[in-house]
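User: Structure please.
Assistant: Input sequence and predicted structure:
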Amino acid sequence: MYRKEETRRTARSLAPDGPVKVIKTSTMVENFNNPVALKVAEIKTKLTDSAPLPTVVINEKTMNFRMDNRTLWTRYALGMINFSVAAYGGMASTENIADNLKKAAAACGDYLYPYYGLTAARKVGDLLSVILINGQKVVEELRLGRDINAYEIIWDKQINELAKYLNELNPAHWPVDLFDEMFINLTALWVDDFKARLKGDFVADSIALDNILKVAVSGVPNHTQRGYTSIADRISRGIIAQFPLDFTE
């Protein structure tokens, strides 16, 4: 069992020219060049004895579904960075950006609505929103030169609540430990970027941004057996695997 404090330390020990070294969970390894077919026979939800059982669900519909989610998670992950830019620059748009963060969180929750219902969509949106609100406090504390350990502890609790709820919705494909680790890495990378911007370290800022997008949006192709999927793809692929008949053409 990994320890959260160790994960946060690991997230900050990135090689400037190497791949992200933050994700250790073995279940994240995927071969993007040879996608594993989703075996519908293994999925219990929404299947009946008389229903046709396709062997794979890889088509234009699933690809568009995944790309839509990547767009939502780009807004979510980079919205926090936009807030730090406005806050550290003393811009008047900070309040508007904070409002956009709430909308980005709600949009990520709404993505789940057709499959899990309105209550679940709103709850996931709310849980994502409180993570962003805590991030705004971290931005301010760093600006004032204060310690953020207490806020990192709050983040860990918020993340665990989110991970447990996602697991309730999709136990087979959204493991608690996996989402715990993914979001801990995302928030740790946010902090890396906040600190880089405060110092005016544009190299560190660029590295942090690249890694944020990898963890939240694009993942890393498994060219060397060390790749991993992203938060966005894990969510979309989990839905496709749980409700395969919704994606047949």
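The chain has a mean pLDDT of 80.
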